[in-house]
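Problem: given the chain below (98 residues), write out its structure.
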Amino acid sequence: MALNTEKNSYTVVFAIIMVIVVGSVLAAFASGLKPQIKANERFEKQQNILYAMGVNNNEGPNDVAFVPTDVVEEKFNEFITRQIVIQGDEVMEDDQAY
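Solution.
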């Protein structure tokens, strides 16, 4: 018995199966790479803070070059000595705020 691939129901079932398979693969990748994603987000935030302070690798007036990710944590710790978190009236120091 051969499947009739000309039917609309075959197309819909095939699409549903593909969505489930691809979604599962993407979810597995996202879960597996979560620590690296968090580290990259932290590096990006540190790069943006350093850039706003004027610490960058710009070579000209129209150049936008952030501190490379392999040295951003070292540079961040060099220039940022205290990290303070303010939530409402509460002020606390947190070394891992950014």
